[in-house]
Amino acid sequence: MMNKKQTLILYHPLMAMEGYPVLAGRVEPAFEYLRESGTLDAPEVFVEEAQDVPEDLLLSVHTANHIQRVKDSGYDPASLVSGGAAVRAGEAVWLGEAANAFAFTGCAGHHASRDSFWGFCYYNNSALLVRHLQQVHDVKQFFIVDTDPHPGDGTRDTLGDDEGVFHLNFEASFRERVDITSDRHVDVPFPSSSGDESFVEAVRRLVPPLARRSRAQMILWNMGHDAHAQDYGGFNLSLRAFPAMTDILIQAAAQVCSGRLVVLLSGGSEVFVAQHAISSIVRKLAGLPSLPEDIQDQPSTESNATKETARKLTDTVLQEWDL
Ligand SMILES: [Zn+2]
Predict the structure, then answer these.
(1) Helices (H), the chain
(2) Average pLDDT for 270-283
């Protein structure tokens, strides 16, 4: 029988109150939408208030100078609870207290390197989760998929040397070339004009085989809804892409790591996109029926040239990796 406590949501009011303004404005409306739409009342869903990530864990990812600069920036309180949300999400899923988890953040993480930060990211939430599970629970293998349209440069900097971390990074780019630099790193420079069909198809073709290859014990999804056509980042997705990607991630996690999946909120600022993308993801995680209003916009369109470029890039990755 399914554990009634299926999906853990991590949240803290400081994320909205003290987060970086571009990202923080969506956080409370998105959380409140989960409440108003009844999702938080479902027995499959439970919420915890995120705690601050402890200083010794911060120091295992970032330099002391970096931590001081974050304190000086004023975004320390929101960054600490954002990191703490990721760490607790990972721990609860590892310990089986939840089947999967969604961590809200007030400051995203994937542009936070060991000793530098940019792009509304201060502490690397993925790296904090990974280091905690390595140090305290001896977890060895992680698969991180980043579908935020901006590159996961900070995740690569903090975890790139780690033999136990496989990093699949999608980014909006005109490069049209896949660079293979490591047997654990895949960067897919996808066309900015990619719509639902191309992007979801690439996730469907790449995530399951690469996750199997990684022998991951847990899958982390860095989810930026700035990939939506009406949000500020690259890609041209509609709301339909988010539950579709969630289905793929859930199935991959079921095949590879007993369903252990943690979703970390990354970029995005449009309130209606945040509300419906996050709602559709959380409801999939919890096994709840989808809400029609969560896919209320039109499916995105894309040119045949974009589809062709996207397909070739995906083919290249599959060939290079002999999949
Ligand atoms: Zn982004």
Answers:
(1) 13-18, 21-24, 27-36, 55-58, 64-73, 76-94, 125-137, 153-159, 196-214, 241-257, 271-286, 304-320
(2) 98
